Each structure stands twice: as structure tokens, then as C-alpha cells.
Amino acid sequence: MNSSQRSHRSHAWTSALLAGVLGMSIALPAFAAETVTRLNPASWSSPPLLADGVDNALASRVTDVHAVPSKSLVYVHTQQDIPNTTGKTQYSWYLDTLKAYSSTTGKLQWSYSLHKPAGAYTLSTQSVYTNYGTVYMYAEYSDGTYRLYSIHSSGKLNWEKPLSDAATITLMKDGSLLVASRGTVNTEGVIRSTLSRYDNNGKLLNQQPIQGSLLKAEGDRILIAASKLNKNTNGWEMVPNPQVDVYGLELKRLYRYQFPAKSNIYGDGSDSMFVLKDGTVLIRANIDDVGNKLFGFDPKGKLLWGRVIPGGSITQSTGTGYITYENNKLQLYNTSSGKALASITLEGTPADYTWVLRTSDGNLMINMDDRTYIIYPSTLAIVETIDTTNLGSPIDYVNRTVYSVKEGTLYKYAIKK
Q: Where is the secretion signal located (predicted)?
């Protein structure tokens, strides 16, 4: 999974406002799993992922595991905590490294560090993976600089760019890389930021200064929180009835929508905004005295509907519609009807932190306390029910194969028919 993966607590979707600014192919199921599949012994295990640890590292972790079948590679993003020795920043320091392992043998193919000898360490990073092996990495450094990297599947650097501001990166539908700057807030509470698109050679395709900050970018749509911020004793906060501007790949505004009073669209960190394959936009909101509603906008920005959904549910896109998941019940909807097209009840005890994610091959992955379901999104057919009792985290699933990190080692498990 990529680095934007987020957990969802199994409680009602929060209505608290945030105090700050914030090429996929679907594999058809081979069969519908009816019993929990106990994984066979691992096909291989890697050498220790953190064997090249830093002597003074305070802690180490693996943040991402992402398989790229087209290159027979599995990427692992490791992070080590480094003592802050200058006092120039209050933030923690990190050493981030991208490693590539052979999906056939588990041997390390190459390693690329975002830290240069005697150079600054990272404060935050983001990784975006393509299906052809290129990895884009953004890094904010302890010396106040920001850099964007394009790393080839061979481990060589394609290109590197300095950025003038902190940013978020997103791979768009046409293969371009969107870089959305964090922007600055003026005394009136107006955010000014910049959208930039690059091709895979690092060429700037277009750039546009805008009012607002990025909420979500996916497919061929870019969602911007465009309202002025409110001032409080802790600084600036998002307004409770936000105006959302939606841009296309040409970085021109296509439409805007003003949400009702006392609406919160910022959520609790779980997925709440989606762009479907045809450009339809879905935005989840919690409205005081009303509850949770999912708003649907057609590709031209016409409001299609606002559908009430359970406040404790998790939402996720299927590409052509969406699902809701609550209390082990999974329901599938499209954009034309508010009636569920399909519904299934999953077995197992819910995990403390439940998530519903898209896998690298386009399926849905839902975790339980002792098992993980792989679901075909168009029908809710169960592709796999995997016993995850002995698996570590993070994990990735693609083409009937599970990659899992446990105790500093990467494992591959092939699921036999």
C-alpha cells in the first residue's frame, strides 16, 4: 500500500473541525472463498530490512510495502528516528530509505536513501508508486528545504527537483504527477497555494496559483478547500461550511460548491472524498442535527444527490460507485440509485482499527482481528479470506500473493488455488 494509507477507528465519524490545513487494473476473482485460508509457509523471507541501521537511531519502522508485478519488485520504505542535534526545529528527524526486493527471490536489488552524507535529515516524506516501477518521493528536510525525487525501477535517480514550499504529491489519471503546495495564510485567513503538474521526465506541464489548499486529488479531479479560515486562540481553523473548488487536469476551475452551514467535510482521517472513473466526485460530510451524508457531483459539477449514510460506517470507492461498511456489513451502491446493489455480512471479530483499502490490483481489502478479506468491488464477491493471525504490518496483496513485514523482515506468501 502507499504511504497515504490511514487507519479508521471503529467509532462514529467525527464532527470536530481540524485545527490546521491539511493506472489500476482489477483482477477478477478466481473463486469465492468460503473458508479462512491458512497461509502456507512463506515462499521466501528477506534479509533484515534494517540491517544498515544508524548507530544513534532512536527507533526504526517500515512505513510502506508495495508490490510492482510488472517489474517483479517489492518496494519497502523504511524510516529511522534520528536525534535532533541542532535545535533549529522542534520536529523529529528521520532517515528515509527506499529499498527494492526481488519478488521472485526476496533478495535486495537496490537501496536509495533520502539522506546525503553530512546533509539534512527528513521531517516528513511521501511516496507515490507507479505500475511501471517509477517511485516519486517528496521530502521536507530539517534545514528548511523541500525536494521531489523520481526514482527508476533500477534504483537510479531519474530526476530531482527543489520545491519552494511543503507539498503533497499525487499520481493523476493521465500519468502526470500533481504537486500541490501547502501555501501560506494571510491576515484575512486566505490561503494562497500553487498547483503544478509534471510529466514522468520531470517536465513542468502547467502551473496555477489558487486560493485554497488541497483536500483530495484523484483521477482527473483536484478538490480544493477554498474558504477563508477562521481565527481562534490556537491559530487558524477550517470553516464549518466550506466552499470546495474542483479543478481539472488543465488546472482550471470546473465548478464550486458551498456546503450547508455546520458541515464538516474533514473527517477523522479515514477516506471521505473520492473521484470515480468518469469524473464523478463523492464527498462525505457530517452536518449538525442531520448526521452523515454523502454528496455526489456529476463530472460537470451538478449536485446529483445527498444520501444519508450511517455515521459509524467506513466509506470507500469502487471506481464506479462506493461501499459502506459497518458492524461487519458491507453494502455496494452506484451513483444512479440510493438502493444497495449488493450486501454481504462478513464473519470475524472487528479489529481495534478497521480499514477498507484498495489493493494494488484494484480489489478491496478489509481487516478483521484474525483475518483479512479481499473483495471484488463490482459485485462484493469474496476473492480471499486470509488468516492474518501471524502476519505483521504493513502488508500488500496483489494477484493472490501477500507481502508482509514482521519483526523487521519481509515475507512473501503465495496463495495456492
A: 1-32
